[in-house]
């Protein structure tokens, strides 16, 4: 109250025209000085408070920036679980994780694939389903080729030599076969030794001289008859399933039931015309899905180069010249009927064609 009284008095003095600076004694400050000091003090305090406020804003903003940066990483990374959130620096370090860095080039997959494969397995409740479902599905669709209702020749494994064919005739449990051109019966014996499921094997050969056809060895009937005797003898163990047709191949074909054979092997004359004729005659005897095969999938020059001029397969019975020989006849037939040719991998390969189902 005393202070207010003094101020009142000073104001009254001022109102009477007296200067505060001159009239005021030196021991007590002039009111203007007091006010000025107060103003300065207030200004300094407000500056100090402003600095505090500014500092708070900067710190708060910085924190906010880090948070928003983390959020960006989360969204970009596609993670749904915040527990996997990592600040940008750590996130980029994650790509140099040795497991990922190693897995990336090895698998050739994307980083996403590596990440998902390195994820923990699903819960044990879903795990058996995940494992058993594809296994069951693949079992259902991956029957062995020979167990399928309509096995395909295309599915047969590679055949290094023609004797490898027989194991598949047996595996497929085929029943009826024919060999066109039997000679001494050597191939027939090999075939039947392995093909134990065979119930009928028809052996077709002229076993005699034929105009325009020369084989190595004496070109005499006696010699050809000796071949027949040899064939009968070595095939004696199979006499209950073998039938001999001593005649021209084309004549024998007419005696055979159409669509009844699982397997026919063509190995009589080797000129283009005769092979084409034999294929045409025996194709109808095959059942759908049956296999036709034959020896010497080569051309005439190839045979001459290796066997000598006596095996000239370029000449047809009618005198025409067909250098493509066996190979040409088989290729033309396959092309005409849009069929695939499989071959063994020998110097004189066997060819195989499947009759469509
Ligand atoms: C290469 S040999 C057969 C070899 C036999 N496939 C083997 O691998 O043991 C050819 C045979 O075909 C016979 N042949 C040739 N022309 C024939 C024809 N038009 N009809 C029937 N057989 C024929 C011959 O008599 C001869 O025995």
UniProtKB/TrEMBL annotation:
Any Pfam family matching the protein: Methyltransf_24
SUPFAM superfamilies the UniProt entry points to: S-adenosyl-L-methionine-dependent methyltransferases
Skewed-composition ranges (Low complexity): 84-96, 132-142
Organism superkingdom: Eukaryota
Gene3D superfamilies reported for this sequence: Vaccinia Virus protein VP39
Region (Disordered): 1-27, 60-142
InterPro entries found in the cross-reference section: SAM-dependent_MTases_sf
PANTHER family: S-ADENOSYL-L-METHIONINE-DEPENDENT METHYLTRANSFERASES SUPERFAMILY PROTEIN (PTHR37909:SF1)
Name the UniProt record assigns to this protein: Methyltransferase
Organism in which the protein naturally occurs: Seminavis robusta
């Amino acid at each position: 109250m005393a202070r207010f009284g003094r101020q009142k008095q000073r104001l009254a003095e001022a109102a009477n025209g007296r200067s505060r600076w001159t009239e005021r004694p030196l021991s007590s400050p002039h009111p203007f000085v007091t006010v000025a000091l107060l103003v300065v003090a207030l200004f300094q305090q407000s500056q100090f408070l402003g600095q505090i406020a500014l500092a708070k804003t900067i710190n708060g903003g910085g924190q906010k920036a880090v948070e928003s940066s983390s959020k960006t990483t989360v969204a970009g990374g596609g993670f749904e679980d915040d527990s996997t959130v990592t600040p940008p620096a750590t996130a980029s370090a994650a790509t140099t994780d040795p497991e990922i860095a190693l897995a990336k080039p090895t698998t050739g997959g994307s980083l996403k694939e590596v990440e998902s494969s390195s994820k923990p397995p699903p819960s044990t409740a879903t795990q058996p389903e995940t494992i058993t479902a594809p296994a069951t599905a693949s079992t259902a669709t991956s029957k062995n080729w020979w167990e399928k209702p309509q096995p395909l020749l295309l599915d047969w494994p590679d055949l290094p030599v023609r004797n490898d064919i027989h194991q598949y005739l047996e595996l497929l449990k085929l029943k009826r076969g024919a060999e066109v051109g039997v000679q001494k019966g050597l191939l027939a014996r090999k075939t039947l030794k392995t093909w134990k499921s065979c119930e009928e094997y028809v052996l077709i050969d002229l076993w005699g001289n034929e105009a325009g056809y020369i084989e190595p060895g004496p070109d005499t009937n006696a010699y050809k008859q000796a071949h027949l005797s040899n064939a009968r003898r070595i095939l004696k163990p199979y006499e209950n399933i073998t039938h001999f047709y001593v005649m021209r191949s084309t004549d024998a074909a007419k005696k055979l039931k159409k669509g009844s054979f699982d397997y026919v092997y063509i190995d009589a004359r080797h000129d283009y015309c005769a092979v084409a004729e034999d294929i045409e005659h025996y194709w109808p005897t095959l059942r759908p899905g049956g296999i036709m095969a034959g020896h010497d999938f080569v051309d005439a020059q190839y045979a001459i180069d290796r066997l000598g001029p006596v095996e000239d397969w370029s000449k047809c019975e009618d005198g025409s010249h067909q250098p493509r020989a066996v190979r040409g006849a088989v290729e033309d037939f396959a092309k005409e009927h849009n069929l695939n040719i499989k071959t063994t991998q020998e110097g004189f390969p066997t060819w195989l064609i499947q009759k469509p189902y």
